[in-house]
Amino acid sequence: MKNSKFRALCMPLVFVMALSGTQPASAASGLGNINVASTVISACLVVGSVIAFGAYSSSQVDQSGNITVICTFGTSYNVGLDAGSGIGATTAVRKLTGLGGGHLDYALYRNSGRTNLWGSSIGTDTLAATATGLLQSHTVYGRIAAGQAPAPDIYTDTVTITLTY
């Protein structure tokens, strides 16, 4: 009797499995890819400090300032300085202009020996560097040559920094 009840329960199960073609469960796997990409752009910022020569009395005056640059790591860049806003100024002879219209000549250099003028021609008189991703400070060396006889006044100039990257 037990055997016939078992057969009665199993027969429908075997019949359903045979019709459905279902096999016993088994594990399977597949492979695929996901593509991942990113673009890192070069970006830079530049800030200049004040170069305060102080009082001039016909003797040579040397002073320095800084240009601070931050760029994306690995970015190559050039720092150039224009001639300034003084009338008749060049990158070799810049002009501090007094409130009364007089001028006082000066120069800006890339090296402490003050032999390499700082100008705006890439590959000639600019400063080239590669970014570290951190703040990088570049010294600007200034000089007012001896022997000038300007009128007493307050003399100023504005030099534009061009950062090319």
Blueprint of the fold:
Blueprint: H1 2-20, E1 44-48, E2 61-71, E3 76-81, E4 94-98, E5 103-109, E6 127-130, E7 136-144, E8 155-156, E9 161-164
Antiparallel strand pairs: 1-2, 2-7, 3-6, 3-9, 4-5, 4-8, 5-7
Task: Give a structural overview.
By secondary structure, this protein is mainly beta. It is 12% helix and 32% strand. It has one helix and nine strands; from the N terminus they run H-E-E-E-E-E-E-E-E-E. It has one helix at 2-20, and strands at 44-48, 61-71, 76-81, 94-98, 103-109, 127-130, 136-144, 155-156, 161-164. A six-stranded antiparallel beta sheet has the order 1-2-7-5-4-8, with no helix packed on it. A three-stranded antiparallel beta sheet has the order 6-3-9, with no helix packed on it. Strand 4 (94-98) and strand 5 form a beta hairpin. The mean pLDDT is 90.
Mean pLDDT: 90
Q: Write down the secondary-structure element order.
A: HEEEEEEEEE
Number of helices: 1
* Distance separating the two termini: 93 Å
Sum up the overall morphology in one term: rod-shaped
Strand order of the largest sheet: 1-2-7-5-4-8
Q: Proportion of β residues? A: 25-35%
Total number of strands? 9
Radius of gyration: 38 Å
Low-confidence stretches: none
Main pleated sheet: 6 strands, antiparallel
SS content category: mainly beta
Helix content: 10-25%
